[in-house]
Amino acid sequence: MSDPMISPDPRKADNWLEPGKLNVQLVYALYLLSFLIGISGLIGLVFAYLNRGKAGGWVDSHYTYAIRTFWIALLYGLVSAILSLALIGVLLAAATVVWVVARCIIGLQKATAGEPIAKPETWWV
To answer: Hey, what's the torsion of the CAs at 71, 67, 62, 12, to 10 degrees?
Structure first.
């Protein structure tokens, strides 16, 4: 006889490491945490690359958005470092931090609501 307490459905609930809503939220959280622990941004990038294309639907737009957020922020960071010799780089670095935080918050809000990112390939917010 089977135990009535055990579900016959072998599917797992949404897991942090599997493609889906929780994993997208983890990626954004790791990006925000990277301001305190730098390596966490790379871990978030790896999760985004590993899971992009596997979940389908609205989740894929978040993975594309997160991947582009990382690479564009890295570019802005390098330009800021070079321009810091002229002191304008400090302002650009601060603007880059605000830009990354804004994109992560927007991504978290839309992921929590189960909505796609409208333009995941944009360079803006």
So the answer is: -150
Over 60: is that where the pLDDT of 108 sits?
Answer: yes
**Interatomic CA distance for residues 13 and 18, integer angstroms:** 10
9: its two tokens: 């459905």
Among residues 122, 110, 124, the alpha carbon closest in space to that of 57 is found at 110
Query: What pTM, to 2 d.p., does this model score?
Result: 0.87
Residue 44: CB atoms within 10 Å: 25
- Work out the angle at residue 115's Cα, subtended by the Cα atoms of residues 120 and 51, and round it to the nearest 5 degrees: 60
Q: What is the pLDDT of residue 69?
A: 98
